């Protein structure tokens, strides 16, 4: 019986090519979207779960009060981990990780010297491989991190520096303030893409202790904030509150004035909770939308299958007359649905594999291909498969099985047997989803463009930011001079940070205000001109800001620190010293648009190199709009390498740095664009199928009408109107829903667009356009067919 | 074999109620070949559908082999039908997507016959109907006469006790029609009860008895043998 069902299903697929194409094509597209999205979402949810003891690992975090602001602390003193473990019976093990947050210059000496600027340099305790489940390909995991200046390198780095040679025992020079020789003690297997710890170099923590300027990191014997990420392995998950209490107690014992509030967070959840790339808010939305798209495709399938029911009614009748029970007929149609969905799944699998790189590039994410075999992902796929079969198979099976055989034989015309109303509801639902997604897509696009074009109080166009590392040292003025000589360069400025790339924070107070956190950047005097900042209260003497202990502040700082309307001459106490305010600039956005502009203090330095004495800095280059960028960048690079042979030349456009801040929104926008296109294609395909069916069903009617003198236009519009009414109805329902959803989403933004009526009009128009095109194409074909032929078929 | 007493069937539309069968009574004995005749709309097909347990009556009694089946639900009717009744239709009603062999095999699938036995029985009946050489063809590739022979083969493959034929020659030319009537006669001679609805006096003559109907009622009954 089974074979018979499969056979007839395959013959039906072959015989009805258009329907099969619409069904399998639509389902495959929906499933592909679903698979790729679930691939991404499962990957995000799988972070750090590959560690054997992942459920027992917790990271230490703290909330610290910094003036009126709460700051989340994620790094702690060197002593913290061990002290907590010694004082809590629920902690079995702890580990510290210190990550170099600036690239280091690493050099292989000897016959073939190679030097690179590298990120991902970690220092950690010897129990690294015991604590986490990273695997060491070469070397002894027990002893590899015991000695100072022991270094483990990733497989990729081993290949980069040593090629086919055995790196064990070889020396790598690491340049910080001085040059240190590290002995390679092992090679670590590449970290999976779902690891929040992405190491390339892992050095023993004892090396850090012996590195110049870092011994201070180990001096504090108390529990407090510091430089080390601290992880615990605990033996009783119900006791994490107790461990936090112990930590708080220890912190108070060390410093009775401490207001820090410590807490433990499950390691496997830290990525979603704290990583900037995770975009957790949208991670919940993606599966929902992927589910909607799949539902759309499944509705198409159901609705087309039942629409075709009348074509199958004779077959069902014959089967029933020959002894088939309702159950057997239902089973047959379930088998057919299963076959359709399996084929679509297969196609979707191939499509997903082919499109995955494009998709990941679009979203700017990196996922190991091996993740396709992840157990949870496969389970999710199996679930999608089962649910699809259940949903898509159920309704057609029910409709088909309930056919009355006599009715089927008696009816000479192909009437609508299979739930015309249900089909109308389905089509309406589809178009509601489509319109909501289209409105969503337009809203996101508009909001993104609003954010990108918002008046940030400065002119960020035509500015290149070139990173300056310590390795350039005293060569900075000379380099800058060369850059300034280039004809395309209008001006330069030096700052301690690239704009939107960070700032320092100081605890500051004025005579009138409460102490609070004050964002702070070191700049030179050109900063104001290059960024075209506007003075609210310029310094009385243009050279005044360059004097020691002087500050330029922004407007918000006046308000926050309760300064006079003209604060020039007033003092702000910062890091234990008094600084005089000598000028005020209009507010400008110097960091994320997630929150309103905060106060800012700028210290103007005379000397170029003093700015990046402690930090690496950035050279801002304002260029002529008309200049050839590749040529300019090339010229700057060729000067750069003359003055810094170690650190690779790297630059960023200020515009790009600004846009980078909306990465998760941009990701959402990209996914939404895909969704919108898919929705339109799938809903359009569904409508095409139904319109074709409707035209076929009414072919006799069309023939009679034509014989009686109806024009092609009259017939086309009479056929199209039914469908367009449905679409119009869907639009009317979708608009308020979409409006609510869009308004809620926009509330996440401090700077947001108003929901203009044209967004809704445009979405409605686009939907109507697709619908009219699809429906009238079929209707026109039917209307222009020869009536003699259609009447003869009866 | 079949005994109906005061059988009634109504069709209701929104405004009117049409009486299709009006207290109809007759009996068909085992091994008999009965023809039912009458003008269009007299209730012949409705009667055949009820006799074939495709439909249920609104009143009266229907004894099948001594069992009252008038109150049976769809599942019960389907069960009784698949073991006892074969159908032959005017429009053949073959499944276009299945080959000749597969069409004939269908009733055996639904009665749960094993594949090897199915093949044997289908071949046997196809030989008998002289369409063995066409077994791999699809219905559209056959002439009307051949299609009806396939339909008859399908009706008898399960060895039903009774065959209900609804104008079996209605779509055939006379020579093909005669062939089909000869087939039915052979089956009847071999012991199968046959009830045939027909417009054709010529075909009716192949039967033992003609029941004539008008407006849902029996008008006359002529015994031919």
Automatic annotation (TrEMBL), chain A:
GO terms for cellular component: plasma membrane. Pfam families: FtsX, MacB_PCD. The keyword Membrane applies. Keywords: Cell membrane, Membrane, Transmembrane, Transmembrane helix. Residues 20-245, 432-637 form the MacB-like periplasmic core domain. It is found in: Cell membrane. GO terms for molecular function: transmembrane transporter activity. The chain crosses the membrane at residues 21-41, 285-304, 333-355, 375-400, 421-444, 671-695, 723-742, 757-780. Residues 288-405, 673-787 form the ABC3 transporter permease C-terminal domain. It is a multi-pass membrane protein. InterPro entries: ABC3_permease_C, MacB_PCD, Macrolide_Exporter_MacB. It comes from the Bacteria. This is ABC transporter permease.
UniProtKB/TrEMBL annotation, chain B:
PROSITE patterns: ABC_TRANSPORTER_1, ABC_TRANSPORTER_2. Gene3D superfamilies: P-loop containing nucleotide triphosphate hydrolases. Keywords: ATP-binding, Nucleotide-binding, Translocase, Transport. One of its GO terms (cellular component) is membrane protein complex. Coiled coil: none annotated. GO terms for molecular function: ATP binding; ATP hydrolysis activity; transmembrane transporter activity. Residues 2-225 form the ABC transporter domain. InterPro entries: AAA+_ATPase (IPR003593), ABC_transporter-like_ATP-bd (IPR003439), ABC_transporter-like_CS (IPR017871), MacB-like_ATP-bd (IPR017911), P-loop_NTPase (IPR027417). CDD domains: ABC_MJ0796_LolCDE_FtsE (cd03255). Transmembrane segments: none annotated. It holds the Pfam family ABC_tran. SMART domains: AAA. Belongs to the ABC transporter superfamily. Macrolide exporter (TC 3.A.1.122) family. PANTHER family: CELL DIVISION ATP-BINDING PROTEIN FTSE, LIPOPROTEIN-RELEASING SYSTEM ATP-BINDING PROTEIN LOLD. This is ABC transporter ATP-binding protein. It comes from Christiangramia oceanisediminis.
